[in-house]
Amino acid sequence: MIFNYSLRVLVGLSLMFSSAYSWSLNVEEFQQYCDKSKLDSAFCQSYLGGAMDAIAVMNDEAKRTGNEIYCVHEKEIFNAPEMMDYILAQPSRFHKKNAILPLLDYLKAKGGCGDI
Question: What is the pLDDT along the chain (116 residues), one digit of tens a residue?
């Protein structure tokens, strides 16, 4: 279990923070790689797990200045299947944008307390 979590975090963070020459996943690509039939794939789990970890770190840092992204506890807001559904159901406004943007939108809608 710990290995699986560590692998997800490592892959997710690698996808998010790799070199400047790498690509980031936009919502359209996320929808292709992580449609309903592939939600349990290692790639989708890793991407979302890494994103949630990175956002939690950002939120912890933002607390120092009173600019939190969300104000509820992670256990209440970090629901992976619900987050995946939210990304997959996004309108065209996120279509060609980074897949992290709908996650931030989701967090703001579900427990937001700061401006994103």
Answer: 454 555 555 555 565 555 444 467 888 888 888 876 666 678 888 888 888 888 888 888 888 888 888 888 888 888 888 888 888 887 677 878 888 888 888 888 888 675 54
Q: How far apart are CA 100 and CA 69, in angstroms?
A: 13
User: What distance in Å separates the CA atoms of residue 4 and residue 107, rounded to the nearest whole number?
Assistant: 25
Tell how far CA 68 is from the center of its chain.
16
Residue 89's nearest CA partner among 42, 37, 31, 49 is 31
Do 38 and 87 touch, CB atoms closer than 8 A? no
What's the pTM?
Answer: 0.66
In the chain, domain spans: 24-37+51-111
